[in-house]
């Protein structure tokens, strides 16, 4: 307990120091630019017109684009040790180079399999299959197309998804239902650093979505993976990576998601949430009659491959992971009966803050369970554990004094 407190103090002192250094260096950097401003702006103007890369900034793709997905060889993800190919990310390369037993890949903690290509959650899932499967490594990465809806209330989760999954997903299809003609969520440079990987579509009905995706992407293959998500889901990137590199698993795939509420510090007592979320293009045609919309609208489809269990998660279901004002906004869009149990309560920011502070679900009665950030390896997506500052209110219960002493 005391140790964490000390650590927190140290971290905040560290942050203050870094901020100071930034301010000081900013100050010094700005000095010369005042003196040289006229000269530098002239040379800037001269240089740009001839510069092809500068004159055409990348932007996101739309229904008018034509996208060709790349085929990427998997070879560079593996290291060749004389007799065995080992998956670099999962292998203790240093150990293997020191010892000369190169007939067997030595896996890092959290990775398994002959080539160390199976993250813990995948390995455990494979162990539970009634009929063992013969996995086959691929020579080209399977492409993953991740389709989800964006709206005012999902900006945070969307940003987390892109950051978490950018390396593994080949194309993000962000669609907006234009029930009203109010603003496009992609304005103001939303997700700017990922624009070359984003296809943004406005559709009137989800039914039309697959047709558009199929038309814009010129070279979809039968074995490309289609991943879909509702508002609250963030798939586990290590689990997803497995599908890029191996063949012969059953589908459709569900992910058993850790059910967090208000942030990653509270867990719903039901603990997990199972969602059918991924399948190949081939399966979409043959097994689902091409009805992407019925999967998205949560129509019952039984899954043949459930990734994750009660201790190892296929991802996160982060419900009401917003600030209190947006949570109220979100509640206003839900069917009323979910939180209305007769005695009308005004749901305002104060009320929501109280729920968050005390760990009470949005129904006003279900008690949530505490999660432990420094003790649990599946506390939150990696992007957030490595960049806590970006969404600190999802990592730390800022309404509870308790959390600082944890
Ligand atoms: C931009 O243009 C300048 C001048 O023509 C050239 O020296 C520079 O290499 C160009 N930069 C890029 C990234 O092409
Ligand atoms: C590779 O394997 C061959 C034959 O098994 C052996 O002679 C050689 O020493 C091995 N090289 C290394 C670097 O382990
Ligand atoms: C996203 O991933 C691609 C590789 O697929 C990489 O080239 C790019 O730099 C990444 N973008 C960001 C912002 O990390
Ligand atoms: C939680 O689990 C119980 C028992 O499995 C189930 O009856 C209930 O509907 C679940 N609650 C929610 C909100 O899904
Ligand atoms: C759900 O599935 C049933 C039959 O499988 C179908 O009749 C119905 O239209 C589907 N609903 C949606 C919203 O796609």
TrEMBL record:
The chain crosses the membrane at residues 12-30. The keyword Transmembrane applies. The keyword Transmembrane helix applies. It comes from the Eukaryota. Keywords: Membrane, Transmembrane, Transmembrane helix. This is Beta-1,4-mannosyl-glycoprotein 4-beta-N-acetylglucosaminyltransferase. It comes from Nicrophorus vespilloides (Boreal carrion beetle). The gene is LOC108565977.
């Amino acid at each position: 307990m005391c140790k964490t407190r000390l650590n927190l103090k140290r971290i905040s002192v560290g942050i203050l120091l870094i901020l100071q250094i930034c301010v000081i260096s900013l100050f010094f950097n700005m000095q010369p630019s005042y003196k040289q401003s006229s000269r530098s702006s002239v040379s800037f103007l001269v240089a740009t017109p001839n510069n092809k890369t500068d004159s055409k900034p990348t932007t996101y793709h739309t229904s008018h684009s034509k996208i060709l997905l790349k085929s990427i060889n998997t070879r560079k993800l593996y290291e060749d040790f004389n007799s065995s190919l080992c998956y670099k990310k999962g292998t203790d390369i240093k150990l293997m180079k020191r010892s000369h037993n190169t007939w067997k890949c030595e896996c890092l903690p959290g990775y398994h399999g002959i080539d160390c290509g199976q993250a813990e959650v995948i390995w455990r899932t494979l162990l539970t299959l009634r009929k063992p499967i013969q996995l086959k490594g691929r020579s080209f990465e399977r492409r993953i197309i991740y389709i989800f809806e964006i709206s005012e209330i999902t900006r945070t989760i969307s940003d987390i998804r892109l950051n978490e999954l950018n390396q593994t997903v080949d194309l993000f299809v962000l669609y907006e239902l234009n029930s009203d003609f109010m603003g496009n969520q992609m304005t103001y440079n939303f997700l700017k650093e990922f624009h070359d990987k984003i296809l943004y579509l406005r559709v009137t009905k989800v039914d039309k979505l697959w047709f558009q995706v199929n038309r814009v992407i010129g070279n979809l293959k039968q074995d490309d993976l289609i991943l879909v998500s509702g508002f609250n889901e963030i798939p586990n990137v290590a689990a997803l990576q497995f599908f890029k590199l191996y063949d012969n698993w059953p589908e459709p795939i569900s992910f058993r998601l850790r059910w967090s509420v208000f942030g990653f510090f509270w867990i719903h007592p039901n603990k997990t949430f199972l969602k059918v979320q991924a399948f190949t293009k081939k399966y979409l045609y043959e097994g689902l009659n091409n009805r992407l919309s019925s999967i998205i609208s949560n129509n019952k489809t039984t899954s043949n491959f459930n990734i994750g269990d009660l201790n190892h998660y296929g991802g996160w279901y982060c419900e009401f992971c917003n600030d209190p004002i947006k949570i109220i906004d979100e509640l206003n869009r839900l069917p009323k009966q979910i939180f209305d149990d007769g005695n009308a309560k005004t749901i305002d920011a104060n009320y929501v803050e109280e729920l968050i502070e005390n760990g009470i679900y949005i129904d006003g009665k279900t008690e949530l369970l505490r999660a432990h950030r420094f003790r649990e390896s599946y506390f939150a997506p990696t992007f957030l554990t490595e960049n806590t500052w970006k969404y600190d209110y999802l990592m730390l219960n800022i309404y509870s004094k308790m959390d600082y002493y944890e």
